[in-house]
Amino acid sequence: MKKEYLIYKLSEDLKEATRIENELFKKFDVKRGLRNEDGTGVLVGLTKIGNVVGYERIPGGGLKPIPGKLFYRGYDLEDLAHAILKEKRFGFEEVAYLLLSGRLPDKEELASFRELINDNMPLEQKTKMNIIELEGNNIMNILARSVLEMYRFDPDADDTSRDNLMRQSIELISKFPTIIAYAFNMLRHATHGRSLHIRHPQENLSLAENFLYMLKKDYTELDARTLDLLLCCRRNMAAVTTLRLRYVSLPPPVRTLTLP
What is the pTM of this model? Predict the structure, then answer.
């Protein structure tokens, strides 16, 4: 029997062996896709970090879809975004502080937090060399492997105390843009023959500006403010959800961090 056919046959057998009849889900009250039969989400935990609202209940039963609402620590994200746009400032660091601490920072706290983020953006030489040596065109895969590399050199990698988890989370939030920018430049160099540029993060730039600077150096203010707003809406929730998962499960940190 040819090896290719054996693999195909095993795959077909697996499909039949794992088939589950639809009525069994209802019989045993299994929530498919984490949804109840009426379309509402399954309650899997309680959190004060964020909330997504996509429907409202109709008196007498039923659901009515509404424009989606995202709340961070009780704040409507639309209100946060409008304030950021109105004042023409960068808001990622402010929203990250809110999600991590549960409150908005004052001016002095925000300045110190921005400095802390900026201080943690540069990568150690070992991590840089690891990115250069990694092969593949999947940036997220390279990001995951780079985090594993950082785990190897973290002297307190398995310390699950609250202070250490916060330190690790801030470091990861800070270093992710740098890792992604370096990985993309390596990919562009390896697959498209482009010149390889490794630009280091700058002290006077926001996280969004630094990411664009490391990625392509030249960018417009509109580029930076658009990216900053997108990061406020998406990346912060993922970052802090990761922090929460680590509190709940308490495994060695990187096991949870590499799940996405």
Answer: 0.81
